[in-house]
TrEMBL record:
Its cofactor is Zn(2+). Pathway: Glycan metabolism; pectin degradation; 2-dehydro-3-deoxy-D-gluconate from pectin: step 4/5. The lineage of its organism: Bacteria, Pseudomonadati, Bacteroidota, Sphingobacteriia, Sphingobacteriales. Its EC number is 5.3.1.17. This is 4-deoxy-L-threo-5-hexosulose-uronate ketol-isomerase. It catalyses: 5-dehydro-4-deoxy-D-glucuronate = 3-deoxy-D-glycero-2,5-hexodiulosonate. Zn(2+) binds at residues 197, 199, 204, 246. Catalyzes the isomerization of 5-dehydro-4-deoxy-D-glucuronate to 3-deoxy-D-glycero-2,5-hexodiulosonate. It holds the Pfam family KduI. Binds 1 zinc ion per subunit. Belongs to the KduI family. It comes from the Bacteria. It is an enzyme of class 5 (isomerase). Keywords: Isomerase, Metal-binding, Zinc.
Length: 279
């Protein structure tokens, strides 16, 4: 049984008065993966969809929720996938793509049928999904880590030494507005996206994984002068409004996937926040 949830957008004024439970209810996506189903959450921030498909011993289809009012899911949308589980097979309008661990796939507007399956039932695939509205049809394309644009940032001294793998970005392949990538923190480093930033022209979503058992990540959000935090576990996602910072610190190093959509495709279009001015 697939799951679909729609969440309204909130302003900084509303979020300022939210308690822990309200913050988690509105922004945290706790159950991204469940066996043999597709879970999807639609955020009204840029109509962005975050979700996961976990085929264990069945071939499962990308659903078309009634809320989209579409003939099929990708009638007016584009889709990005990054595999965080066992080897996967994704079939898009009859063409098969094999995705190993941490490999990505872009599926363009107009693709009518998408199916997910695991290459081996004993090693279930976990296909993390992001989707945004699309105005143009671009070719489907698989992107491996070797094909990604790679940037190394931070230092061990500031506990934010990390490698950014830009997988589904316009320097690698054409998209309408969807961008996705993966940031891997080095051993001993725990901070991501620090110094923090906002970008009023697009929203973002983070998915944390490879968090060691018994460890957690504290995700920071909110306006730079009015921050909030959400404690997160491995294989969970969080929605970040366009007006909010999106940063985190773990009790160990970890990996996270970032996805975003909005007005432009300029990765560097961001407003930086000085660390000592955050409140």
């Amino acid at each position: 049984m697939n799951k679909f949830e729609s969440r309204y957008a909130q302003s900084p004024k509303e979020v300022k008065h939210m308690d822990t439970a309200a913050l988690r209810e509105n922004f945290l996506i706790e159950n991204v993966f469940e066996a043999n189903q597709v879970n999807l959450t639609l955020s009204h921030f840029d109509r962005y969809i975050v979700g996961g498909a976990m085929p264990v011993d069945q071939k499962i289809a990308l659903p078309n929720p009634d809320d989209l009012k579409a003939t099929y899911f990708l009638e007016r949308r584009e889709l990005g996938i990054i595999n965080v589980g066992g080897k996967a097979i994704v079939t898009a309008d009859g063409e098969k793509y094999e995705l190993d661990y941490k490999e990505a796939l872009y599926i363009g507007k107009g693709t009518q049928e998408v199916f997910f399956e695991s290459a081996s039932p004993g090693e279930a695939a976990k296909l993390y999904i992001n989707s945004a509205p699309a105005h143009h049809s671009y070719p489907n394309k698989k992107v491996s880590k070797a094909e990604a644009e790679i940037v190394e940032l931070g230092t061990p001294e500031t506990a934010n030494h990390r490698v950014i793998n830009k997988l589904l970005v316009n320097s690698v392949l054409p998209t309408c507005q969807l961008q996705m990538g993966m940031t891997e923190l080095k051993s001993g480093s725990v901070w991501n996206t620090m110094p923090a930033h906002t970008h009023d022209r697009r929203m973002e979503a983070y998915f944390y994984f490879e968090v060691p058992k018994g460890q957690s990540v504290c995700h920071f959000m909110g306006q730079p002068q009015e921050t909030r935090h959400i404690w997160m576990q491995s294989d969970q996602a969080v929605i970040s409004p366009n007006w909010s910072i999106h940063s985190g610190a773990g009790t160990s190093n970890y990996t996270f996937i970032w996805g975003m959509a909005g007005e432009n495709l300029d990765y560097g279009d961001m407003d930086h926040c000085a660390i000592n001015e955050l409140k």
